[in-house]
Amino acid sequence: MKSAIKYLFLIITFLIVSCGVYEEEEKNKIKLKNKKTEKTIKSTLTTKPSETIDLTNKGIGPIKSITLPAEINQQMVAEGEAVFKRLCSACHRVGKKFIGPAPNGLLKKRTPEWIMNMLLDPEGMAKNDPLAISLLKEYNGSPMVNQNLTENQARAILEYFRTLE
Questions:
Q1: Whether 80 contacts 160, CB under 8 Å
Q2: 96 φ/ψ angles, rounded to the nearest 5 degrees
Q3: DSSP string spanning 13-35?
Q4: What is the DSSP secondary structure assignment for residue 144, as one 8-state letter?
Q5: Whole-angstrom distance, CA of residue 136 vs CA of residue 124
Q6: What does the pLDDT read at residue 84?
Q7: Claim to verify: residue 1 and residue 68 sit in the same structural domain
Q8: Would the pLDDT of 22 be above 90?
Q9: Domain range spanning residue 31?
Q10: Number of structural domains, the chain?
Q11: Are residues 81 and 104 both part of a single domain?
């Protein structure tokens, strides 16, 4: 009888210890998974929307596709610069963050379609485009004013942006 009690005691002890080890392993797996998730969230949160590179999003608006020629059209650049200075420079500064983001290097971060749609329909983009929504939050909720640009004016501004590195 004593040996049966000893065996029973050993079996129960073994089960308790092994279950404890299993639970500890599961806790460690959960901690590791949480750390990975935390790192992913932190890296996502540390990249500002204005620094995010998204060369796939075409935005929401009238422009579905645009092909830019290799050579920059200097006449369009001059027109785009004039329109930009007249209508956009109250909020945007070349070379520095202001009320809105600087246009420098914009074509390295956004598609031409996205830029055109933002110029032509800033309200629609701010309501429906995830990146535009994020930018609105980054810039303290200051929405881009709709300047009622024509498609030709927006295209000229885009050509001007091509010259800004």
A1: yes
A2: -155, 155
A3: HHHHHHHHHHHHHHHHHHHHHHH
A4: P
A5: 12
A6: 97
A7: no
A8: no
A9: 1-46
A10: 2
A11: yes
